[in-house]
Recover the amino acids of this structure.
């Protein structure tokens, strides 16, 4: 099968190429970058030398890229993918967008939080969080790959919400991400000397992953959920940990919580349940598509604290995109993704 | 004035010596270590070469150390300080304990959380969080210096609790600390390769700083407070960030929150208010005694999110100890502590 | 094919298991640890959960392990492998030792530098640096896998020495390694707070990789070489960079140097030549078996400066071991090793 | 005394302000930035909040700045300081330039390596490496503060060269620096994800500190010295380690080397001799003006390996500038600089 990557020079695009190199059923045929058209990808990313020495093309002729491809991955900033999606719509290629353009059912929510007009409102799209939307992904033409913070947060909370174990008005997500999530653009704030030995929050009460989490959990729980989401920046390269709080409803027993996780995720290859009292660490999933999940119950306050760890560039972006691709094409979901996390 | 340090070889003890070197009114007369008696401190900490080449003594003869000293700083593991405190009680020396032994009004709380019998229950002690207990510290014989997480957490929440702006049943503290907080003991879990590029929670629902935070906030708010406290380990050396959540009571306006912080801390030198919408970063306080505080209001959920940043070894330990020392002896509170944070 | 790993709980052992998971022609049948016999490897390394949940055995019955295995990898501290090797010698299993016991032709050199009596002097062994000793490895029974610093150093210098381009009395290797090279043992000196934001040399003029480098370069150059080797510790987890200096002989032209590298390594898959003026970075090879090499000529001093970068745990240990295994069994040399380095 | 800082917004400028805050005999009267004129320094560097809230001025009216000041520190990119220096020349202010414009006796060397025309060739200037040029600094009008790599390198090698203990044709300096040396400009290459867990060399055989080192060592040794200098980038914020190699001349004994260091530096407060066999670490000097020095002798190759560690922003820039300032004005050399390095 032939696949192309529109916008291959960001960290997510590069991670995608690395994963596709392991995938035994695909061949990468086009990779694009508007700012580096004509440049070899290995000149921008020397770690690709000898592995990917392809030249970056322009995405201007997206249509012919679509015609050459069974699937097109889009790794562009939000607002740009929908333009490409509109063009590719009439090709046979399936579309997997790693950005936000196709994640929202209600495009007015997108428009409000992203401050951009949505120009492809009638796109037939599905939300690309593999474990929870697998059936829909199977038949999808356009997949709006779930975001990084959202993947960690939704997977941690879904069993609680689905089984109505918690008071939905009490959900707080305190999330922490490595700096690769901020992209490869040159910003003073992300220089090593600025971030080294430093820790801080950002976008409190305003991060764009908030409505995406709310959409999914509302669907899963069957009622409208509004919650707090607070991201923080960790002085490391990769990884997200989400610490999720909620009040348990009356009479909910610890075993009910255990069952909720076991029932929803017991058969999932990429979700590893560490059980009640466990401690996921981002390093244990680094470079892999795993999401490690554990939960704690504080009897003093009757709160559940759910913890989840992912690699933001893999399960939070490129890995999940390939997982969705595999699902959409009926390939073994693990293909290209069955690697041991890198430790230490 | 003459001061001594019992237990000088941990990170807090070493930081204390560094601060005392800048203090123009003290001379360090005794430093002790049971495991390194007879060794020069600069052999254990080469950064002290030429600055402190003193030899570590045993603390066995605490009484004579107390007689030589105007003040004795104790930086021992919990359970050990109270033994020394009992001996020093009858000397003229003031005692500043950096550990937990003298932090609790109700020693049964201490005994429950620390799993140790308290053997100095009648000690006349005050809680050493300078900004909130200054008046009591002035006359104190024994000061139980506030813990690191607790200092950050209490200072962030005190204005809200004191002014009854939040529902006290909704307080959640999600805290993050650099690894120096775990001490200098050789543990596999704290090796650089293990922690590098990793992030995780620990001691969820069971950390010993929980009851200490509850004690202080309950006193400040005048009602019993039970809350969630969740610590995390950041792959960095120094610094604590506390992210504190609480539901605002009805009709509380953003300006009420602003005023609460301004009124309580407006005149405090070591508390820097970044205002509503600000973002404290641990790097901005690194190596200093500052506590930077900001707050956000999420109108969607009617929650306040308060953020505070400290250096765990300074404002969270040795710096606060010297601040308490200065208060207790009527010295300018800034003496020895008026330094610019180290950046970058 | 069946393989076993004696001493699976160090960083090199764990990396080996990660690589073997990708290898399509092997099955791991025994893994051992004396200090953790009976424990699941995933309890020691949670990143293995769901991938390797095997139980660690004792190596006491090495003979039966050998009989079950086509190959046995040994990842024990030096001095211990030769005892196992002696036992395994009479089984059909090939032996790949990741330690130093089988690296030296002249065991008296080993005994002098390692301060241990060699008890398996008559072992038929070959030196396991794949690119330079491939022909010998093909028929080997016992392979003494090259060390980490030595691999980087020898590969960088071999073309110069082989072609007699440099004055062999002027060779200086200034090498830098991530901390994973120091192993997983709990040592105060390797705690994150100790190493973070720090850089230093160690074992100057006395590091045990010195005679190993000298042995190989002397063989390659056909004359006895004595050189300087200086290791340094970098505050990072993985990676080695070797900066190698030597005076060019008279009349050696830059093009001669270029040709020497091209001729020796032009066809090597795992050696990537960045050419004259290039800059290898450890990150570009992280998690992979590549060795990136470049060279510079300083016309002012007539010195060549050769640079090489490897991942110490892969090309410097487990990756090279699998590469040697593949060679010894006539398998495609890339099997299990053809991965994109992890970036960023 | 009144001092001003021209170009206060780089890392060296900020460090200078931090040091001047501790200095009991100075008051900062002007700070400038062309790109941030009118902005408060604490808006650019939040760690200065409450300490320095001064507004940045333009340096356009340098002359009046000079008239207001007893000394002017210049922390501009090379090529810019000499313009300011020319204007300030006729004021009473002493000038301490942290850049390269006033470091070279022979401005043609400067012009060749920096590729800029020197427009202030007749400036009466002295080289500002305090320990070796103290007498000249006492009477100086313009001080060309020594560079960071150069300070570490020259201090490590001066005793060997001065006492003619080494073959001057064999000097090789392999130096390593934290990333703060690259400045605060937004560059993709210096983003945390790019540098984290990475190590590499740069500017091999072409770094501009080479001729500066050669100038000083040639003066000290009394003969022209040409040498190799190779810088590397360490994934940390602060610190430089220089590893210096040279062949010992015949009949030089280890004790001769010891004496050379002891005689030259025995009385220097800011140079700490760790002796033969010692290991300086950048962390042991972090945040301080110390230069820690040790040396090793490799009897196998008859080479001496000298090691030195400094904080690049302190002894390698701002600290040395204040030390020079103190010397020039007859103030105690330690004033403002007598702090304990920050550990851990």
């Amino acid at each position: 099968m032939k696949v192309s990557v529109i916008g291959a020079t960001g960290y997510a695009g590069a991670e995608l190429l690395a994963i596709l190199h392991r995938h035994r059923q695909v061949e990468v045929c086009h990779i694009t970058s508007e700012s580096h058209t004509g440049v070899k990808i290995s000149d921008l990313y020397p770690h690709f030398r000898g592995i990917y020495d392809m030249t970056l093309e322009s995405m201007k002729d997206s249509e012919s890229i679509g015609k050459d491809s069974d699937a097109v991955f889009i790794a562009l900033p939000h607002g740009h993918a929908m333009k490409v999606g509109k063009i590719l719509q009439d090709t046979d290629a399936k579309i997997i967008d790693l950005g936000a353009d196709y994640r929202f059912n209600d495009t007015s929510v997108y428009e409000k939080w992203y401050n951009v007009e949505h120009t492809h409102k009638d796109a037939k799209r599905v939300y690309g969080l593999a474990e929870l939307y697998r059936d829909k992904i199977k038949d999808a033409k356009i997949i709006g790959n779930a975001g990084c913070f959202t993947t960690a947060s939704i997977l941690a909370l879904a069993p609680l919400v689905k089984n109505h174990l918690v008071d939905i008005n009490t959900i707080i997500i305190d999330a922490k991400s490595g700096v690769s999530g901020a992209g490869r653009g040159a910003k003073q704030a992300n220089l090593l000397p600025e971030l080294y030995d430093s820790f801080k929050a950002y976008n409190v009460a305003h991060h764009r992953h908030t409505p995406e989490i709310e959409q999914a959990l509302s669907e899963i729980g069957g009622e409208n959920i509004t919650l707090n989401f607070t991201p923080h920046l960790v002085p490391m390269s990769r990884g997200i940990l989400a610490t999720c709080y909620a009040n348990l409803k009356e009479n909910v027993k610890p075993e009910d919580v255990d069952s909720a996780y076991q029932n929803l995720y017991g058969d999932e290859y990429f979700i590893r349940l560490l059980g009640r009292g466990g401690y996921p660490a981002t390093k244990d999933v680094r470079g892999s598509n795993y999401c490690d999940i554990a939960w704690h119950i504080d009897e003093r306050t009757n709160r559940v604290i759910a913890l989840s760890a992912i690699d933001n560039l893999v399960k939070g972006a490129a890995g999940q995109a390939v997982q969705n691709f595999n699902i959409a094409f009926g390939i073994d979901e693990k293909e290209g993704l069955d690697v041991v996390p890198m430790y230490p």
